[in-house]
UniProtKB/TrEMBL annotation:
It comes from the Bacteria. Its main location: membrane. It is a multi-pass membrane protein. The keyword NADP does not apply. Belongs to the UPF0410 family. Pfam families: Transgly_assoc (PF04226). The keyword Cell membrane applies. This is GlsB/YeaQ/YmgE family stress response membrane protein. The chain crosses the membrane at residues 28-49, 55-77. It is found in: Cell membrane. Keywords: Cell membrane, Membrane, Transmembrane, Transmembrane helix. It comes from Candidatus Marimicrobium litorale.
Length: 79
């Protein structure tokens, strides 16, 4: 059940980050990939700041923040 929940949270986080940064999503697979990588980035950043995310909502917020940062960095590199 943990893997399925991670994929769902990753997909939603990727979709939210895509809407925040670009105005649309990246498709189901793209959203999941962006969300999962964003969760790793978010976890790293939250740990550096001494913050903790609990529960599904906390995981979603952390993954979305990480995905937004990831997409921002990619956009800066592309320029």
């Amino acid at each position: 059940m943990g893997l399925i929940m991670s994929l769902i949270i990753g997909g939603v986080a990727g979709w939210l980050a895509g809407n925040i940064m670009k105005g649309n999503g990246f498709g189901v697979i793209g959203n999941v990939i962006v969300g999962i990588v964003g969760a790793l980035v978010g976890s790293f950043i939250f740990t550096l700041l001494g913050l903790h995310a609990y529960g599904i909502l906390g995981s979603l917020i952390m993954a979305t923040v990480g995905a937004v940062i990831l997409l921002w960095v990619v956009a800066m590199i592309k320029k």
